[in-house]
Write a structure and sequence with these properties.
By secondary structure, this protein is of the alpha+beta class. It has helices at 50-68, 108-116, 120-127, 136-145, 150-155, 164-172, 182-185, 200-206, 244-251, 308-317, 323-332, 371-397, 414-424, 436-449, 455-459, 474-492, and strands at residues 3-12, 16-23, 28-35, 47-48, 73-80, 85-89, 99-100, 159-163, 179-181, 191-192, 197-198, 215-217, 220-225, 237-243, 260-264, 268-274, 285-292, 295-304, 341-343, 361-363, 404-407, 428-431, 465-468. The protein folds into 2 domains: 3-251 and 433-459, Nucleotidyltransferase, domain 5 (2-Layer Sandwich); 304-430 and 467-492, 2-Layer Sandwich (Nucleotidyltransferase, domain 5), CATH 3.30.420. The chain contains 16 helices and 23 strands. The radius of gyration is 22 Å and the shape is globular.
Length: 502
């Protein structure tokens, strides 16, 4: 018998797979997690084992339910790493290659060809997304093309392609459901953002046959029921499916346009709810924020390639035994960066620049520079990149956000949150939960399952938050930001040294 007051929520991420058991009060009754590994078979190629993803999901589901006891939950929810793609055999359910994850750059040459064909503007207008290997479409095309007879199999409907939510839905239902939600579909670059439907021209340009695609459904609806899913057993409705960044925005109770959040992870995502789809003129992406209750909430987003991961990289560069943690301690010992700026473009720059060819830079070094100054510069680089996207959002929407809602691993650093508020000149409100994506997915499942009646009910659920107000003078804010802009200009090749006297 299903427990009518509990939702089991899965958050399948790049570095961890989690499960939470949530009750009708929004309280977490149990949690479980498994670390994930990535493989890098060639420079710029990043992938995961699709079977290992499914195995980790089964393990955390069972551990969570075993810890809590009390039988199967009333509903199941999914949040997932976005843009990552799996292709599998429709008959056997076996993956036909790796899960090519969002960070992978293997399709950069194909994306460059699309730009050379002059398709950037029309693809952005239809999908809301600029051409970049980050998004799913080029990855799906590559996975199909690398298979012997792959295109013929795809045209014949012998293959399934999907983002990670689709892969998990297929396995949870034993192949009964091949679907995805609108948020994940909006990140593929194959969906017409206005019609919320797969687009024939986009499919043709990316050479992805329609026969492989999942059905697009709202984020909050009954997708299907479990079949032999471990301790969940059979018949548990899967009611909420959403991309992880979108789920975090929802869990902030950011249900109104203008609400803006930043998720600080290895990379970072800034997302703002908007009244309608906004086609960006400043390097951002239009997206579906979520869809529930017969309504689609749009959003505008900027993706930063390397933010929290900069601390790990810089700590490794300095030979620290616990790179990210020890670097954060070093940064805490400095009140300023000593004029040092680090632009972490080790894998190019994401929003709002979208420059694959950009490479990292450290500038402002003097004989007085210490490793602690470098640590401080690494930490500050996260906040500067967030401000770049924050400013682009203000330009695209015509109105700067009143505050920034923060979550994710790097947001736990008080020094970073205070500097973020200072460099923005806006308050930063940090959610203290480390499970925000899973909670957002659970809320959407609870709406579909009737546990909560409306978003107004969700707004009443308890949230632990901490506020950081700006303390920096406008003069210092401008001086520091000008230094960052100069460093970025050097990376982008826009800096011109003065002419030398002859």
């Amino acid at each position: 018998m299903l427990n009518a007051a509990r939702i089991l929520s899965i958050d399948q991420g790049t570095t961890n797979t989690k499960a939470l058991l949530v009750d009708a009060r929004g309280a977490v009754l149990a949690r479980a997690a498994r670390p994930m590994t990535v493989q890098c078979p060639r420079p710029g190629w990043i992938e995961q084992d699709a079977r290992a993803i499914w195995q980790a999901v089964r393990e955390v589901m069972d551990e969570c339910l075993e810890t809590a006891g009390g039988g199967p939950p009333a509903a199941l929810a999914l949040s997932n790493q976005r843009e990552s793609v799996v292709v599998w055999n429709r008959e056997t359910g076996e993956p036909c290659g790796p899960c090519v994850i969002w960070q992978c750059r293997r399709t950069a040459p194909f994306c460059a060809e699309l730009r050379q064909r002059g398709l950037e503007a029309v693809i952005r207008r239809k999908s809301g997304l600029g051409i970049d290997p980050l998004f799913s479409a080029s990855k799906a095309s590559w996975l199909i093309q690398q298979l012997p007879e792959g295109r013929a199999m795809a045209l014949a409907g012998e293959l399934c392609m999907g983002t990670v939510d689709s892969w998990l839905l297929w396995n949870l239902t034993k192949g009964a459901v091949h679907a995805c939600d609108t948020t994940n579909a909006s990140r593929t670059q194959l969906m017409d953002l206005a019609r919320l439907a797969w687009d024939d021209e986009l499919l043709a340009w990316f050479d992805v046959p329609r026969a492989v695609l999942p059905e697009i459904r709202p984020s909050s609806t009954v997708f299907g029921v479990t079949a032999g899913a471990g301790l969940c057993g059979d018949g548990v409705p899967i009611c909420g499916v959403i991309g992880d960044s979108h789920a975090a925005l929802f869990a902030h109770a950011a249900f109104r346009p203008k609400a803006t959040k930043a998720t600080y992870g290895t990379g970072s995502s800034l997302m703002r709810a908007t009244d309608a789809a906004v086609v960006s003129k400043h390097g951002l992406s239009a997206t579906v924020a979520w869809s529930a209750g017969g309504r689609t909430q749009y959003g505008i987003e900027g993706n930063i390639t390397l933010s929290g991961g900069t601390m790990q990289w810089a700590g490794e560069l300095l030979g620290l035994s616990d790179p990210a943690a020890e670097l954060a301690e070093m940064a805490a010992g400095k009140d300023d960066n000593g004029g040092v700026y680090l632009v972490p473009a080790m894998a190019g720059l994401g929003a709002p620049y979208w420059r694959d060819d950009a490479r990292g830079l450290i500038t402002g070094l003097t004989r007085g520079t210490t490793s602690a100054h470098l640590a401080r510069a690494a930490l500050e680089s996260i906040a500067y990149q967030v401000r770049d996207v924050f400013d682009a959002m203000a330009l695209d929407t015509g109105e700067p956000p009143e505050m920034l809602l923060a979550d994710g691993g790097a947001s736990r650093n008080d020094q970073l949150m205070q500097f973020q508020a200072d460099i923005l000149g806006r308050p930063v409100v940090r959610n203290l939960s480390s499970d925000l994506s899973a909670i957002g997915a659970a809320w959407l499942a609870g709406l579909a399952a009737g546990i909560w009646r409306s978003v107004e009910d969700l707004e009443q659920l308890p949230r632990q938050e901490q506020r950081f107000d700006p303390q920096m003078s406008e003069m210092d804010r401008r001086r520091l930001h000008d230094g960052w802009r100069d460093a970025v200009a050097r990376v982008l090749g826009d800096f011109r040294a003065p002419e030398m006297a002859t």
